[in-house]
UniProtKB/TrEMBL annotation:
Lineage: Archaea, Thermoproteota, Thermoprotei, Sulfolobales, Sulfolobaceae
The protein, known as: Thioredoxin
SUPFAM superfamilies: Thioredoxin-like
Domain spans labelled Thioredoxin-like fold: 1-69
PROSITE patterns to which the protein is assigned, alphabetical: GLUTAREDOXIN_2 (PS51354)
Domain of life of the organism encoding this protein: Archaea
Family that this chain belongs to: Belongs to the glutaredoxin family.
Source organism of the structure: Candidatus Acidianus copahuensis
InterPro entries (UniProt xref): Thioredoxin-like_fold, Thioredoxin-like_sf
Amino acid sequence: MNVEIFTHKNCTECSLLLEFLEQKGLLGKVKVIDTELYPFIALERGVISTPSVFIDGKLIYAGTVDFEEFASLLSGNKVEKRIDKEDLADKLMYGITDSFAATAWIYVNRDFDSFMAQKDFVKAVTGLVLVENNDEAYEYLRNIMIKEGEKYLSKWEERMIRNISSNFIRELYWLYGIKLNVKEVMEKYPLETFAHWLMVRGGAVGRVGLRIHNLTEKDLLERVKKIYIFTLTNYDTLWEKVKKEQDAISPKEAERYLSL
């Protein structure tokens, strides 16, 4: 069994997963690939979020990993799931909103026809990858999201806004290392610059995946403005949450990444 885990050193979920595998004595059974060091390998494999787990070349988990289920798979057990088709759309939206790239892209572009072409990601986050004969269920979900995507975007909007806001603050934390005040953030990132950041960060590498929208598009700017206002209004709370999260990635975890 060939097991690969795509990670990032600042990914809390990645650190928790590696710690879990180490405690279970299973870390030696996996190959860890740092997406910061090897971004183009990750792109080639279709990695959208970390951690992403591949078993024998197939994407099994993307972003959220069922630790015990994964341990069972690593131990050679066969895992089969039964999924209620009525739950698929919400499972997909949970998976999307667990990924910054996926959230940013779909929030800006509202294009489920294109997004659902990421078949491996869709099957991984919904659990369909562990369901036999899953193509029919995938097609059912694809049709639902193309027809009713706006309904689900509205339903999950608050979580999407929180995801994007938190990741913006996280990047400020990495860039500056100190807490800027709200006025400084507004000066460095006025609304139009923030909108550009969001478009570029939404799953784009160079021009691949990049969709630049004209800032005269009122609907787009209103959606971006919602996030911008939420971020500034909740800035202190978001900053403390991010700082606590990043501080929790211990020196031991940093050493592990350096040694992989």
